[in-house]
Amino acid sequence: MIEETETIEEFLARCSADVEEAVRKAAAAEILPRFRRLAAHEVDRKSGPHDLVTDADRLAELRLTEDLGALLPGSVVVGEEAVHANPAVYEALQGDDPVWIVDPVDGTRQFVHGDDGFCTLVALAHRGAVIASWTYAPAREQFATAVRGQGAHLDGQRLFAGPPAPGRDLVVATSHPDYTTDEQKRALRALWTDGLAPRPCGSAGLEYLAVARGEVDAVAFSWEAAWDHAAGLLLVEEAGGAHLTLSGEPFRVTGGNALPFTAARDAATARRVADLLRTAS
């Protein structure tokens, strides 16, 4: 619980481990017991055949909403499933209260198909700035955290993305074709050029983690749902990376970004990918 005179940074110094524990418990209670054991009635479609939701998504988000709200009274939760049920929930990102941004199962399609490439994403933002993030891949037993100004860590080890090795193609994970419009496909097609090796992305959260680890050089995404990006963008930043929209400005979780945008393991790579995206817009 935050004290009356305590800043959010002081709250994090005391309670970051409690947030991590809340994320682990939600996954242990609601996600992992359903992994590779989903019944047909536990899987639904939302906007289309590739936009899936499961009981694990819904129940994990409910648990996180309760537990995170209890840790930080006065905060609000913007979760993917809550916004699907009531789009007005998203407006909390524009307010003055601290906001927990939650994606209970990022990579639901992978989860449904029994692939371990999914994760739970939580970020804490205040007045549009992401202050801390938690990325948990429970089936891989990986936990990444970031606090603004204090670095990014994976299982307690500091992450440094570093620049790409010279002389090889840049690996860029892009918005999956199943989730892109024809216009977005045209914009992203600029990345199919000499010196780049684009491929469709999996879980956005795990792609950001791969950038922060220096395993992937960049991502290029065409949508701006905060729950998909907030945690990972801070992770990349704190590992030494950068992110840019088509306007040349960093991505804003509050929205209104010029899309597509990129996040990369260093500023030079971010500029290169953003410049290519801009040529097709």
UniProtKB/TrEMBL annotation:
Q: What is the lineage of its organism?
A: Bacteria, Bacillati, Actinomycetota, Actinomycetes, Kitasatosporales
**Would I find Signal among this entry's keywords?**
no
Cited InterPro entries: Inositol_monoP_metal-BS, Inositol_monophosphatase-like, Inositol_monophosphatase_CS
- Keywords, A to Z? Hydrolase, Magnesium, Metal-binding
- Record organism: Streptomyces tricolor
**Name this protein carries in UniProt:** inositol-phosphate phosphatase
Record-listed E.C. numbers: 3.1.3.25
Catalytically driven reaction(s): a myo-inositol phosphate + H2O = myo-inositol + phosphate
Could you tell me which Pfam families the record lists for this protein? Inositol_P
